[in-house]
# Entry
Amino acid sequence: MKGLFLKDLSIIKTQGRAVVLIMIIALFMLMAGNNTTFAVVYANVLFVTFGITTLSYDYHDNGYVFLFTLPISRKLYVMEKYVFSILSIITGTILSFVMMLGVSFIKDDYILTTSELSFVVAYAVGAIVISCIMLPVNLKFGPEKGKIAMIALIAIVVSGIFIMVKISDTMDLTKMSWIIRESSIMSFVGIPTGIVLLIISFSYLISCKIMEQKEF
# Structure
């Protein structure tokens, strides 16, 4: 797996300038205003797509044919893509925390709130779930059709969030907030973590099956 990981890192190095530029722009957004939500999402866009980007490079010019002449299994290849994607998202999340903490120390009128930190964590979880959907889709259909599927997925997610916000505006959330306050930390963190781990495991098994059925 180490060789595959180094290969993917060398691919991502070609986007190094773009990553640095985006992080600088996001930092200026945080310095100029208090719209942390947009700045965090903007800063992490590339990190979310890193795993899919490396898949695209492997797909072109008969890359799979060459890769699988090496002593690696298809399951190991799939596992590396999931590890690489998740670590990329975690890296983006850590950088977001560092930027927000830095701005909170520099700017007197900016106070880092718990809700903002919760948003960063929630965004990271959502990004992992999206990656778990997009990895098997791209393995199955290839990068070109996978881009169409990604656009459709983003549209569905945005629409779902918009509908949820509209529904929440018409609901009495007092009971729900009371349940959250009464819940223990273990159940509040453990249940979502368990769900995400199940999604990752299920997605990984699907991806492994797709790769086993592929002919190169």
Q: What stands out?
A: Residues 2-213 form one domain. The radius of gyration is 19 Å.
